[in-house]
Design a protein that fits this description.
The structure is a homodimer of 346-residue chains.
Chain A (H helix, E strand, L loop, with lengths): L2 E4 L6 E4 L39 E4 L10 E7 L14 E3 L2 E5 L3 E6 L13 H18 L7 E8 L12 E7 L4 H17 L3 H12 L3 E4 L3 E4 L10 E5 L11 H21 L5 E6 L6 E3 L2 E2 L9 E6 L6 H6 L2 E3 L3 H9 L7
Antiparallel strand pairs in A: 1-2, 1-6, 3-4, 4-7, 5-6, 7-9, 8-9, 8-13, 10-11, 11-12, 12-16, 13-16, 14-15
Chain lengths: 346, 346
Amino acid sequence: MPELRRDPIIGRWVIIATERAKRPHDFSKTAESPVDNPEECPFCEGHEHMTPPEIFAFRDDKTSPDSPGWKVRVVPSIAPLLRVEGDLGRRGWGVYDIMNATGAHEVIIESPQHITHFGKLSREQIQLVLKTYIQRIDDLQNDPRIKYVMIYKNYGKEAGGGHLLHTKSFLIATPITPKRVKEELQGARIYYGYKDRCIFCDIIRQEQEMGERLILENDFFVAISPFASRFPCEVWILPKNHSCDFYKITEEELISLAEILKEIMNRLETGLNDPPFNFIIHTAPFRKKVKPGYWKTLEWDYHWHIEIMPRLTRVAGFEWGSGFYINPLPPEEATKFLREGVNNER
Amino acid sequence: MPELRRDPIIGRWVIIATERAKRPHDFSKTAESPVDNPEECPFCEGHEHMTPPEIFAFRDDKTSPDSPGWKVRVVPSIAPLLRVEGDLGRRGWGVYDIMNATGAHEVIIESPQHITHFGKLSREQIQLVLKTYIQRIDDLQNDPRIKYVMIYKNYGKEAGGGHLLHTKSFLIATPITPKRVKEELQGARIYYGYKDRCIFCDIIRQEQEMGERLILENDFFVAISPFASRFPCEVWILPKNHSCDFYKITEEELISLAEILKEIMNRLETGLNDPPFNFIIHTAPFRKKVKPGYWKTLEWDYHWHIEIMPRLTRVAGFEWGSGFYINPLPPEEATKFLREGVNNER
């Protein structure tokens, strides 16, 4: 059983994935070769038997689970880091804290065809993928053990992408609110306490006024280069309407989000020559009813958003030790580049 | 002039290294080829003219700066991220905070010969390298603008190592205490406040008693696999005597540290087949005299140590978004492996 272990000094949690354990020198060996061939791909339509049984799918009427006829399909990870069975088993061990790795680890297969680039999906298909995210979050919030759901993409080797190239996202549901999420909630809360305004709403206003880091804007979303970008061409997509929960997005906003996402992904791909990237939805933790009529309210100050980080530079010792980042490309330059879209000189 | 920019939500600082700026698609190009040839290496003895003028060196009597005859040599980085000139220029810009990248960025050249592996240096040479670190920290603490000095190594491409293979370390001095360092200080302080004991001292005691994560021990140091290791074969080296400042180490401790460092580096190199790694000295920030006879005391709860992180796995979207880490090798397994030393089967 994998374990969750807490660093006793700074409270960072680590998933010790015991069932993936290898001999230490195995890590230095080369990885499996990429599967770029629909015939071998477990995520292509017709290969449903190659994955664990599906958890959810958008599929045609009268088709059965784990058979063709789907548009988006969700399956458990074949080597889950966290598992839905069992209780948390929180326990101490001298100075250390440990719990069972209870939660969920799912794969969202974004197309029945062997498409490898998210930006190549139609806007309608991206909407269906976003609806799948919403459906999964909405379902998992009923589990009282789960505090947080994170949805993310790892694309390309440098971004931790695996050997299966079929376009997909991952979902991890955790029994604790992750440290990084807590830091954002606290930052937003401190600002709100001081100003009576949301810091993300203020950022959107300032970026719209100044313009030099505003990449794109549509009815309901902005795409900006963050002022303190950690990586060259980092992009944040923020909803103009204040909301802490991604999964409460309206139908109109969903169309607008699919549109801006497709455009940004295509510009990154074309402009940066198909870069490795990570994509992460930052949303508030679940708010559990503490007693009837009373909800914890910390999260209302928060503003959900998406962070996209092309992985063109490497994180080294100074970054690991300090939490400082080194970015060789000013975000204002990145904005100029990403604004030009696909027509920039190469 | 490079800038320091603060993320307004979680207070993470980023160095925007404007003078290294390139066009965004340049980042996807391949890096310079490695310099593995003493004739082209700017760090070899006799090539002193290929670096900026030296800041410090341990050298033979009657030899002049920037000439042969040295044992360890310190030079400014050729493309410094922070510079010693100028004031901090702290300023706001709407919701954002910014300051000039004032500080220092130095290279510690660890041998006059073209040696590429730290573990291949003699114990006496490693002692000289450690003494150089101490000398530089001691010198920089006189600058009232500098709050923190971080010393680290990036070895190998995956760890952010550059194309110059000659063994070296880096020093970055910053005008603010880095966020990650603050988190450790706070963690240590909270524990001390609750228990009246140092958390690191308690960790050392528990690891000595349990044994299963204790790799090596000598008169003054222990080397352990941390309980919540983020990476396979992560190693922490901790002094047995409580002290918050690396640079106040005694002469006896220095010998003991050089010995354990050499041994651990050699075991990692042999056991993991020359892995990329980061090496970071975690020490307390400078304590500036606030008024005569009064010093801020937060740092006394802290316990300096060295963290060595082989980079055999990649950090992906879930880690970036959550602050959780995924480690496929339990630290107890790593300990067994590293204890066997160089004689394990391959």
